[in-house]
Amino acid sequence: SFIVVPIAPPQFHWGRPQSNFMSATPFAFNSIKAMRSNYNIDQDRIYVSGYSMGGFGTFSAVTHAPDLFAAAIPLCSGWDPKLLNTLPNIPIWLFHGDKDTIIPAKYSRNFAKAANDNNQLNVQYTELRNIGHNVWDYVYSDPEIWAWLLTQRRK
Q1: What are phi and psi of 133, to 5 degrees?
Q2: How many Å apart are CA 116 and CA 123, to the nearest integer?
Q3: How many other CB atoms sit within 10 Å of the CB of residue 130?
Q4: Residue 14 burial by Cβ neighbours in a 10 Å radius (0-12, 13-18, 19+)
Q5: How far is residue 88 CA from its own chain's centroid?
Q6: Counting Cβ atoms within 10 Å, is residue 58 exposed (0-12), middle (13-18) or buried (19+)?
Q7: Please, is 117 exposed, middle or buried when counting C-beta atoms within 10 Å of its C-beta (0-12, 13-18, 19+)?
Q8: What value does the CA radius of gyration of the chain take, rounded to a whole number of Å?
Q9: What integer best gives the mean pLDDT of the chain?
Q10: Which residues contact 98 (CB under 8 A, 6 or more apart)?
């Protein structure tokens, strides 16, 4: 198993097209490409997850490489419901804290509602009660979430 955790350098961003910062997404894709060419990686079990700006980057990654990922777990982020058609139909489990004051939960909530109302994507949404922006402390330590993720395979 491999876990690649790219960090956006200062003055870079993950997945915000309307930004003055440069996108760090090519760096992440170069890391994945290097891992795939140098190691025996199960091509049907490549996942993406990120939180906050990295949650937006998670959506951006699956948009830019729709055939690469088996599933996605964006945390405390969201995506524009008008861009539903830009996302591949892979399992997405979206998490947000209802007390998040940095990126309000309405962004995740509105996206999940639009996705499920349109029956367009395979989206689960979990809103953690009385949790702020730091949902990763709860999500990444939950073995059930990892078990779910590891059962997902690219179709």
Answers
A1: -70, -20
A2: 7
A3: 7
A4: buried
A5: 12
A6: buried
A7: exposed
A8: 15
A9: 89
A10: 105, 127, 128, 129, 130, 131
Nearest Cα to 127, choosing from 147, 151, 104, 152? 104
Which uninterrupted H or E stretch holds 93? Answer: strand 92-97
Q: What letter does residue 87 receive in the DSSP assignment?
A: S
- Give the pLDDT confidence of 65-116 residue by residue, as tens digits: 889 999 999 999 989 888 888 899 999 999 999 999 999 999 999 999 999 9
- Both tokens of 112, joined, read 């999940």
Q: Would you say 70 and 99 are in contact if contact means Cβ atoms under 8 Å apart?
A: no
Distance, C-alpha 91 to centroid of its chain: 10
Two tokens, residue 44? 């049907």
How many CA atoms within 13 Å lie on the side-chain side of 73?
A: 17
The three-class DSSP label of residue 53 is helix
Q: CB–CB of 93/70 below 8 Å? A: no
